[in-house]
Amino acid sequence: MALHAEVQNPAAQTARPMDRLAAMLSGDLGEVERLLAERAASPVATIPDLSSYLISAGGKRLRPILTLAAARAVGGRGGDAVAKLAAAVEFIHTATLLHDDVVDDSDLRRGKAAAKNVWGASASILVGDFLFARAFTLMTETRDLRILDILSRASCVIAEGEVRQLASLGKVDLPIPEYMAIVEAKTAALFEAAARAGACTATNDETISDAMGEYGRRLGRAFQIVDDLLDYGGLTSVIGKAVGDDFREGKLTLPVIYARESATGDDRKFWDRVMGEREQTESDLAHAIHLIRASGAADRTLEAANAEAAAAKAALARASRGAFHDELAGLADYCVSRAF
Amino acid sequence: MALHAEVQNPAAQTARPMDRLAAMLSGDLGEVERLLAERAASPVATIPDLSSYLISAGGKRLRPILTLAAARAVGGRGGDAVAKLAAAVEFIHTATLLHDDVVDDSDLRRGKAAAKNVWGASASILVGDFLFARAFTLMTETRDLRILDILSRASCVIAEGEVRQLASLGKVDLPIPEYMAIVEAKTAALFEAAARAGACTATNDETISDAMGEYGRRLGRAFQIVDDLLDYGGLTSVIGKAVGDDFREGKLTLPVIYARESATGDDRKFWDRVMGEREQTESDLAHAIHLIRASGAADRTLEAANAEAAAAKAALARASRGAFHDELAGLADYCVSRAF
User: Partner of A87 for a Cys bridge, out of A35, B142, B222, B277, CB 3.0 to 4.6 A?
Assistant: First the structure.
């Protein structure tokens, strides 16, 4: 299929932009890791225990890397402020995950039991609140009101989007703009804020930080659209992996919107039953994946992600150049190539 | 009893400091109300619906009044920054209430069904997050980093204290310092931050804002200790009102700590059963209230609250004078006199 050829990096090479960025940023990332441990500390043991369960254990640090790389790409030289910003972004992300697990009643996160299943929903809510507050303390310490402005607004958008998603559950005819508003809120807003605020730590030129923000936003949209496709196994993967969370929770995402759009007869009835009425049997997920691939919905979803990645790279071209620029451009391709 | 005589205002007069402060601050409060409505707005209807359920409907606005009065008492003249701060403080308080209702699984709040019973726990969590983020946006708009510093730190203390309280549930021998740490976090920290940050909007003299912060902190401690006593009907009230929430939730508070401390034999076993093992029958609350009054624990609790109110007034004397000062001093007495 033509779409597959559009992506430059085949799957085997896709991790490289993240690995290379992590290596290039190892000094900055070390300071971020130190801050994450230091600021999740508390005499109340549940707080560091629960935080480190999520933070120490296996996050990809995608958002801190994006923050740090955005700063470096526009001429930044690391330092205290951008490290605190990157740690704050990771805390906000972690707080969101903790609350999401409770809201979605998810039992798994990053392949492990969700924190709420280990410490309880109450502890997850309150430790999320704590990390969110710590994020704002870290940002206040940067003494940069632009950072606080960008991240506090993004936090509003994120929470607003989560409520929007909650209200849309079981809505079988979710319009694509409403789906995109949810994507914008749940992922793109924090990517955008991280990239824009990162750039702000290194430049006062708003055309540059705006362009970097647009890069982050488009990258976030591409990332989330592909995530939503991966929840149905991506383009080709064998069924049986950790897929189907959105399906079981009745979350309407782009692969399903496209698949249902072109469906008639029994297929249309299938989607209305499993997503609208949320009456699902054991074999329904496999059938859903079959329909998404056979109807071309998977390819259309990838196409949408590709368009976002292209827009990300176009915005990036207005913001930066050099080694960090090149890796950030590669990161946009990486986001999409995960779908294969 | 001597303790009763110490409080100057009998119950009939106690509402006056709040009413007078509200009247004296009517212009400032009008702007705060406008901000609360404006900033709880969202195209996602659940957000204003749920927010206004708590915010429009019957809060006493104690914390915004404290914020505004603290500023006025040290020479402030109202204005945009202090109004935004006061609205932010109310949002943080409301966010905390929303999350508390989910954490405590309370069915009632301010005499109405808890928001989580109307909109669900998920909406309560996420709208709480939204209001918290909006609070930080408001504070960022003041362009005053001292405000952000004070309130972000207080937010950490509040969340940390909530986790501490969670971990202490069912602990029948809670030491008084641990109880006070919970009081400090769940109430005194925000009172202190509101008063200190309020003063900061009007003066750069840290000895004044520190003293005002200490006033707020002591006022908060007095307020919460009396609240905890009121949950057992206060000193004299007839049983049958909305009492017993802490009892049913197994929250150890000062009246119970004092009552159990002096209890022997069957009484000690009673406390260990109802609070430690949380095995409660219908008549246990009435018996608990009887023991708290008969053992002198109610009087001792009031004495502790009185000491905090006295400390509040002593701190206030170092910070301010004039009409707002006098009403704030009266407010400390009011907090305690609610117990009668």
Answer: A35
